[in-house]
Structure to design on (226 residues):
């Protein structure tokens, strides 16, 4: 079992709809969770971080964390073509010694 | 401006050569990391360091070496023992500690190609 798992996609969503990206992790003691966006050929940029169970909203983005189910998700409302990118889920391990990345989900917003 | 600077952005290596990728940060971050990314793939951890003069192997350390003589600097050497080094290399840094959440920030990356 991979430490952080994501569906590789591509996930195709019509412009203006809600895009839902999912991530599961294996280390039950993990405390910090991050979503990064990566455009092709560029380095990842931080979108959201979440530490507590529940939802965290920032503009069009909402991160959802369920530690009991070891599940973290990212919702993108009113999807725009500029949201087309690969989204990486990252988890800090329980000893806080390193950050583990999923392989990413490719999101495509179709006009 | 604060940030992470990687150089060079593009590098070509002949087979059998060692090459060194530079990474400097002025964010006063404790931890620094090197990741490798192959086309269409996720990030794989090569080495990381949480304090000066100490570093740990990641998942794919074979064929690579690092040093951490200064807090600001974490160079990566790709040795001739790394048989398939063509990839996008990302340097990153973070604060260490629960309050900071270990949020990680990336440099712009270095493209290494074997010719």
């Amino acid at each position: 079992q991979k430490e952080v798992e994501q569906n590789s996609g591509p996930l195709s969503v019509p412009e203006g709809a809600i895009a839902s990206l999912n991530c599961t992790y294996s280390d039950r003691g993990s405390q910090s969770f991050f979503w990064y966006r990566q455009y092709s050929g560029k380095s990842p940029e931080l979108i959201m971080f979440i530490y507590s169970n529940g939802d965290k909203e920032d503009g069009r983005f909402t991160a959802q964390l369920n530690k009991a189910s070891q599940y973290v998700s990212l919702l993108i409302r009113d999807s725009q073509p500029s949201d087309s990118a690969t989204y990486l889920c990252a988890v800090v391990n329980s000893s806080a010694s390193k950050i583990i990345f999923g392989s990413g989900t490719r999101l495509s917003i179709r006009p | 401006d604060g940030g992470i600077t990687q150089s060079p952005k593009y590098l070509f290596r002949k087979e059998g050569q060692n090459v060194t990728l530079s990474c400097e940060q002025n964010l006063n971050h404790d931890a620094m990391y090197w990741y490798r990314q192959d086309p269409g793939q996720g990030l794989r951890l090569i080495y990381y360091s949480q304090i000066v003069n100490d570093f740990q192997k990641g998942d794919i350390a074979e064929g690579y070496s690092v040093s951490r003589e200064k807090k600001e600097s974490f160079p990566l050497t790709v040795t001739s023992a790394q048989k398939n080094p063509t990839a996008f290399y990302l340097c990153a840094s973070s604060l260490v500690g629960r309050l900071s959440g270990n949020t990680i920030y990336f440099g712009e990356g270095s493209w290494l190609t074997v010719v």
In short: The first strand of chain A starts at residue 4 and ends at 6. The two ends of chain A are 36 Å apart (CA to CA).
